[in-house]
Amino acid sequence: MDEADLLGDRIAIISHGKLKCCGSPLFLKSTYGDGYKLTVVKKQSDARNGTEPGQPHSPPAHSSVSPCSEPRVSQFIKKYVASCLLISDTNTELSYILPSEAVKKGCFERLFQHLEQSLEELALTSFGLMDTTLEEVFLKVSEEDQSLENSDVDMKESKKDT
After folding, report:
1. Diameter of the chain by CA atoms?
2. Cβ distance 94 to 86 under 8 Å?
3. Rounded to 5 degrees, what are φ and ψ at 62?
4. pLDDT digits (tens, 9 = 90+) for 53-103
5. Parallel, antiparallel, or unpaired: how do β-strands 93-98 and 85-89 relate?
6. Pairing label, strands 11-15, 93-98
7. What percent of the chain has a predicted confidence (pLDDT) above 70?
8. Which residue of 36, 46, 102, 114 sits 20 to 30 Å from the alpha carbon of 16, by its own alpha carbon?
9. What is the pTM for the complete model shown?
10. Predicted pLDDT at 117
11. Following DSSP, what letter does each residue of the chain receive, concatenated?
12. Residue 57: alpha-carbon gap to chain centroid
């Protein structure tokens, strides 16, 4: 899929022998993509003694490996992109979907400027942004096609029963 994204001027997605969509990679991503994926990396405490790396030993304040607070980070991001959606919370990272419309409103620029300034305060080490991939677009189009087929089968079966 990465090669198609880089080399393809127009890409067609075919499912079950039928053309489902066709267009440039940018068109397909903007039409079928969920937006951008923002990943923030949590600052890690030294798990052995509960302190941050390089700090003197002290009794553990809590059992968490990271001092990062998901609700606090989510609230911070929602100040700039209200419609963000948390999709993953692991020991090391938080991932959010940011809708494409937020780019047009200039929300990303303000978010990234303030996020960069607040990394330490939010107990984060870094962040990254990814665009929707063509693979995600393909999976979404295929999934929609499959759900439409399932609903057609359900309707046909209900008509037989009546």
Report:
1. 75
2. yes
3. -160, 170
4. 555 544 444 444 678 899 999 999 999 999 999 999 999 999 999 998 888
5. antiparallel
6. unpaired
7. 79
8. 36
9. 0.72
10. 95
11. -HHHHHH-SSEEEEETTEEEEEE-HHHHHHHH---EEEEEEEP--BTTTTB-TTSPP---S-S-S----HHHHHHHHHHH-TT-EEEEE-SSEEEEEE-THHHHTTHHHHHHHHHHHTTTTTTEEEEEEEEPPHHHHHHHHHHHHHHHHHHHHHHHHHHHH-
12. 37
Token pair 């990465």 is found at 2
Amino acid at the residue 55: Q
Task: For residue 68, give the nearest of 91, 47, 50, 84 by alpha carbon.
Answer: 91
User: What CA–CA distance (Å, rounded) separates 98 from 28?
Assistant: 17
Q: Which domains does the chain have, with CATH numbers?
A: 34-53+60-131 (3.30.70.250)
Structure tokens at 79: 């100040």
* Token reading at 91: 């020991």
Q: Which of 2-16, 102-116, 119-133 has the highest mean pLDDT?
A: 119-133
CB-based contact 132:36 (threshold 8 Å) = yes
